[in-house]
Amino acid sequence: MTVLVLATGNPGKLREIQPYLEGLSWDLKLKPEEIEVDEVGITFAENAALKASQVAIATGNWAIADDSGLEVTALDNAPGIFSARYGTSDADRIERLLRELGDRPDREARFVCAIAVARPDGAIAMQTEGICPGEILLAPRGEGGFGYDPIFFVPEKGLTFAEMPPAMKQEVSHRGRAFQALLPQLKALES
Ligand code: IMP
């Protein structure tokens, strides 16, 4: 089996990513903690590619990375690629977003996820993107998930990400959609 190093230090994401890759004949390993990756790109796709490439080169293995975040239309698509850096904790980030949006009626938002897979020499072999459209609620709802999940409402399901059972979030989320697009390509490489 070929080793595939997962370039994330975020345990919430790891829990969500692992199930997508189960059943594939890739030997999934976590990125060693000492490998730091720079997120200096200006798009999700650029950041995913940078992370996958750097981890592949540092470990000498195939690597997979995702970069994701929340875009809020009325805030000029903020926090966007700065979603993780928008505050010091999940509660802080949610509080800031709700404060900046105030009681504006336009609550349209979307989660975006870009995934990149790099070969051991750092060359990008595959890239996909997934989008989940939704709305920002006035107050948090639900206990599951991580990050901005309690304020992100998905009209298609009538629930916030934090209210969804994990399998439902896997089906409709930006990350789920990006992985659904990636899986056929990963499978094709196995043979
Ligand atoms: P990344 O680790 O650079 O991809 O940053 C992603 C950030 O966007 C996370 O730290 C979260 O704050 C947010 N985010 C990404 N995906 C999700 C999700 O599925 N639910 C809630 N927040 C998310």
Descriptive report:
By secondary structure, this protein is α+β, with helices and mostly antiparallel strands. The protein has a single domain (2-190), classed as Alpha-Beta Complex (Maf protein), CATH 3.90.950. The protein has 5 helices and 8 strands, in the order βαβαββαββββαα. It has helices at residues 11-21, 44-59, 90-101, 166-172, 174-190, and strands at 2-6, 26-30, 62-72, 78-79, 108-118, 124-136, 152-154, 159-160. Strands 1, 2, 3, 4, 5, 6, 7 and 8 form an 8-stranded mixed beta sheet that branches. Strand 1 (2-6), helix 1 and strand 2 (26-30) form a beta-alpha-beta unit. The mean pLDDT is 93. Bound molecules: inosinic acid. Residues 10, 39, 67-70, 83-84, 93, 111, 145-149, 161, 173, 175 line the site of inosinic acid. Inosinic acid binds at residues 10, 39, 67-70, 83-84, 93, 111, 145-149, 161, 173, 175.
CATH class: Alpha Beta
The total count of helices amounts to: 5
Please indicate the percent range of residues in DSSP E strands (runs of 2 or more): 25-35%
CATH architect. name: Alpha-Beta Complex
Largest sheet: 8 strands, mixed
